[in-house]
């Protein structure tokens, strides 16, 4: 049931504050983590995350969190590559498989490859009865509720929330890092996400311009480079506009050749220690008449000055929340652009909700 919404996708975007609250409630309680006891990272030396599509991009964000907080190396790979590369698996590897449906053929094959090789297999799934859930040693359901629209939205942000909690657990087990302050921060996520949803009218006008473009670039740094990839993926699958996401620092190494006055460049840049560098990338785009749409907070907007054709202002958020919060305007931008173009938002052409054949 779509309720009062025109599409399942829009409903699922708006459900995010509520399902994230459910998800956090399932795994954290009064400043303490409540993850399965078997999820113990002592002795873990390395994490491998394998997934497809948007779930893979959640893995890329998790790499930043786990490496930064728990100081162990994290490898992230797309399942179709991982399974056929048959990589060596060092001792002390924890393998994490991220899948909304829990049925994705390549992800499942990668999981089966890791059996007997990894110390433990963790499934981060939405469908708790799925094959990936059944075949994992430890299952962490993301509690997003049924996701009907083909393009993943609340699935992505709930995957992120669970992966953030998992990173906190790893940091506690390996370094004795107290999770309480970050858990208190995560408690603010549903409220801040409601604020982010409030930016929808501005995003709708940005979508009117974007709907006229034939190509778009998305840029971001650090964990936000994964969000740039997610923004580009959502836009292409929903609106059929050709879009590419890049780490901002890669701009000069090729994609800047594409920039001209017809090229919208969506820059995902919350205020953080890397903001200045991203602003300088943005200026390079503007010097070539590229049309910058800047997604940032009030301080970032001030630092960026007059150049961008449009600034979409997000609430000011702690770093750990930024990937979830900035997913929202990127989802809405793709949604409204597609709606204006009249494409089938819930069932984009050529796509299936669950990719059970490779
Ligand atoms: C994009 C999208 C897909 C899925 C991918 C993996 O919006 O929905 O890229 O994320 O097909 O699916 P799951 O998570 O079910 O393994």
Automatic annotation (TrEMBL):
<dbReference type="GO" id="GO:0097367">
    <property type="term" value="F:carbohydrate derivative binding"/>
</dbReference>
<keyword id="KW-0677">Repeat</keyword>
<keyword id="KW-0808">Transferase</keyword>
<dbReference type="GO" id="GO:0006002">
    <property type="term" value="P:fructose 6-phosphate metabolic process"/>
</dbReference>
<feature type="domain" description="SIS">
    <location>
        <begin position="37"/>
        <end position="177"/>
    </location>
</feature>
<dbReference type="GO" id="GO:0006487">
    <property type="term" value="P:protein N-linked glycosylation"/>
</dbReference>
<protein>
    <recommendedName>
        <fullName>Glutamine--fructose-6-phosphate aminotransferase [isomerizing]</fullName>
        <ecNumber>2.6.1.16</ecNumber>
    </recommendedName>
</protein>
<keyword id="KW-0032">Aminotransferase</keyword>
<dbReference type="GO" id="GO:0006047">
    <property type="term" value="P:UDP-N-acetylglucosamine metabolic process"/>
</dbReference>
<keyword id="KW-0315">Glutamine amidotransferase</keyword>
<dbReference type="GO" id="GO:0005975">
    <property type="term" value="P:carbohydrate metabolic process"/>
</dbReference>
<dbReference type="GO" id="GO:0004360">
    <property type="term" value="F:glutamine-fructose-6-phosphate transaminase (isomerizing) activity"/>
</dbReference>
<keyword id="KW-0963">Cytoplasm</keyword>
<dbReference type="GO" id="GO:0005829">
    <property type="term" value="C:cytosol"/>
</dbReference>
<feature type="domain" description="SIS">
    <location>
        <begin position="206"/>
        <end position="348"/>
    </location>
</feature>
<dbReference type="GO" id="GO:0046349">
    <property type="term" value="P:amino sugar biosynthetic process"/>
</dbReference>
<comment type="subunit">
    <text>Homodimer.</text>
</comment>
<feature type="active site" description="For Fru-6P isomerization activity">
    <location>
        <position position="353"/>
    </location>
</feature>
<comment type="function">
    <text>Catalyzes the first step in hexosamine metabolism, converting fructose-6P into glucosamine-6P using glutamine as a nitrogen source.</text>
</comment>
